Amino acid sequence: MTNPLVHALVFLAAVIVPxxxxxxxxxxxxxxxxxxxxxxxxRTAFREMFPVGSLRAQNRLDKLKRYKRRKSSPRKKxx
Length: 79
What we know:
It is a single chain. This protein is mainly α and about 80 residues long. It folds into two domains: about 1-35, no CATH class; about 40-70. It has helices at about 5-15, 20-30, 40-50, 55-70. It is elongated and about 60 Å long.
């Protein structure tokens, strides 16, 4: 959880509920041990989300090309 207020409320609820701290710490440990996907899994998921001929895929590729072109071109100095 990135929101500290929500995190504090969940922790407070875990303290009040009997046995809640055990569940809270088990949940926190589980969240830390989640492994990120391998590059091949990420590629497969991306291809499922954006099939080759779809408009979403074309739009995504256009955005990536624009970003790369903007990033690689030198900035013009203002006069």
